Amino acid sequence: MNRARAQWQALAPSVGGLLDELHGTFATHDLTSTWNAGQRAQALHLVDQLRRAWAREYVALDDLAALEALTAGLNLPATVTCRARLEGVQGHFRRVVEATYEALAE
Predict the structure, then answer these.
(1) Residues 97, 102, 105, 106: is their CA dihedral positive or negative?
(2) HEC profile of the chain
């Protein structure tokens, strides 16, 4: 199980950076008819939830899915950028899950 914990810790800086970038994009995106203040607040809350989940070594799939759905309200460049960052976070979650599975299988 130590390998799984080591994965969480090793990936923490990368996940933190991705979440910081997501937060910045959501916080600074112009309000439009498809991206309103409520959506911005919800997205920022979900980013914070993901940050707390990572710190607790918890995989927050529902928050990831909700955040991905919210990206549809952004303009196209921001949507693509945010979805790529979310895919990065998901990939890190997958690496940790795989390490946990391997540790439990031993």
Answers:
(1) negative
(2) CHHHHHHHHHHHHHHHHHHHHHHHHHHHCCCCCCCCHHHHHHHHHHHHHHHHHHHCCCCCHHHHHHHHHHHHHCCHHHHHHHHHHHHHHHHHHHHHHHHHHHHHHC
DSSP classification of residue 29: S
pTM metric for this prediction: 0.90
Distance CA 52, CA 79 (A): 23
pLDDT of 41-99, one tens digit each? 999 999 999 999 999 988 889 999 999 999 999 999 999 999 999 999 999 999 998 88
